[in-house]
Design brief:
Length: 315
């Protein structure tokens, strides 16, 4: 059987819909999205496996797993992203979970995962509809410390890749997140009592006003960051490009030495979203040799993101 696996790894930013980019940057980025869209539509997957973080919309500190697979999922629609149910093939999600657990990796399961912009933005950009294809969502904690060692993410990705390579269907793996960035997402270490309840998920459903205020804070921070007046950590283009080189090299083991504290120090509190890329590339590596077909990178302060995009095929 010929294995048919491909990967789209890309940064996301909810600011794509809420920030004004310089004309040349916007045109370049749209061209990058067009290239990715052509890649995805030419590949025409039967199934998508979607590695994504969450930003305290579906996963909270009452019980924060390192990673979790959804047997069913719903998008909450933050920042104007598409709300509604994803088309999750439950039997496939269960089979993947059983396979990964059998490999000795403690994947948790959700029978009704709530996902946010981090999970659905690539689907929206590629298909204009989060229900366009069957999707198995895999949450990877990338925002809420403490973090599992990066090696565990590699092993998770490899295990899922081994499973996918036994399937007689075309599978597109999507990795959504990263690279260096430090948006003002609430953090436990600096939270007041109200924010702490929100992070724990014990404050009840977030009101429309509170959500609008939370989002406006990030939108304002992005505007100030672009103007050079924001009090958030700068992007780290060198770190981003070094990481992309390691991922493209085919040998992911150097990433095992990345320490979460160092990642935060160099590349910001949300740099851990690169875990989704590591899982995706690891899945590709488990199915054989791969090569990066297309690679884009630009640090874009208006999006508070070292913004990267790669498409990856089997060799
Ligand atoms: O406000 C949030 O929940 C997240 C915002 C954000 C901003 C920039 C890049 C990202 O990856 C984000 O999730
Ligand atoms: Fe994010």
């Amino acid at each position: 059987m010929t294995v048919s696996l491909a990967l789209l790894a890309m940064s996301h930013s909810p600011l794509l819909e809420h920030a004004e980019l310089p004309g040349d940057v916007s045109a370049e980025l749209q061209a990058a999205f067009d290239t990715a869209r052509t890649f995805v539509h030419d590949f025409d997957p039967d199934i998508i496996v979607n590695f994504a973080p969450d930003h305290y919309n579906g996963f909270f500190y009452t019980l924060m797993p390192a990673f979790c697979i959804g047997y069913a999922a719903e998008s909450i629609g933050d920042y104007g992203s598409q709300a509604g149910r994803l088309d999750v093939p439950e039997d496939l999600a269960r089979s993947i979970a059983e396979h990964v657990l059998g490999d000795g990796i403690d994947l948790t399961v959700s029978l009704d995962m709530q996902v946010d912009h981090g999970a659905v933005q690539p689907m929206e950009l590629m298909y204009s509809d989060i229900g366009a294809k069957p999707v198995v969502p895999v949450f990877i904690n990338s925002v809420a410390p403490p973090f599992t060692p990066v090696q565990r993410i590699r092993l998770l990705g490899e295990s899922i890749g081994r499973y996918l390579s036994t399937m007689d269907q075309k599978v597109l793996v999507i990795s959504s997140g990263g690279l260096s960035h430090d948006p003002p997402v609430p953090r436990l270490a600096t939270a007041n009592s109200e924010q702490r309840k929100a992070l724990m998920g014990t404050g009840g459903p977030i009101s429309a006003e509170a959500r609008a205020a939370r989002q406006q804070r990030v939108i304002d921070a992005a505007r100030d960051f672009a103007a050079g007046t924001a009090d958030i950590q700068d992007l780290a283009p060198q770190w981003d490009q070094d990481l992309m080189r390691i991922l493209a090299s085919g040998d992911l083991t150097p990433l095992d030495d990345f320490s979460p504290d160092e990642m935060t120090r160099i590349a910001g509190n949300s740099s851990h979203e690169v875990r989704t890329w590591i899982a995706g590339y690891a899945a590709m590596s488990a199915a054989g040799d791969y090569e990066v077909e297309y690679s884009y990178y630009r640090p874009i302060r208006e999006l508070i993101a070292g913004f990267g995009m790669t498409t990856v095929v089997q060799r």
